[in-house]
Amino acid sequence: MPHIDFYIITDETAASRLQLACRLIEKAYKNRQRIYIHTDGEPLAHQLDELLWTYREDSFLPHNIHGEGPIPAPPIQIGFTATPTEHRDLLINLNADVPGFYKQFTRVFEIVPPEATSQSAARERYRYYRNQGHEINTHKIHSLPV
Description:
This protein has helices spanning 16-30, 42-54, 116-131; strands at 3-9, 35-39, 63-65, 76-79, 88-94, 105-112, 136-141.
């Protein structure tokens, strides 16, 4: 049963959600985890793809959009409609809904931006996970270090 973590961002900047995602991805990658990031569509998937190449000059995070790129696939995959077919260690959900495939992961990170609609959707996901019997932790992120 996956362990669920909610990262609630109080920073109002639009980039903070993706910046936090990059930091979490980098930390998980350094811990040799396989990561799948589930976005709400192709534009956000490509935006995150670009950001992972540029967000820090001294960082290399091997990734690609799920279904594109080399075989075997790098340990970091970004998707929006795909269901990952192999087990992954970490799911980072950037979608408003709980992905139907979330149970195949050891951990699930939910990143919640400060907008009211995002927080409302996150409360629904939280209730869903709780009703499924998952252990849930919440982390309030007030600002992201530069």
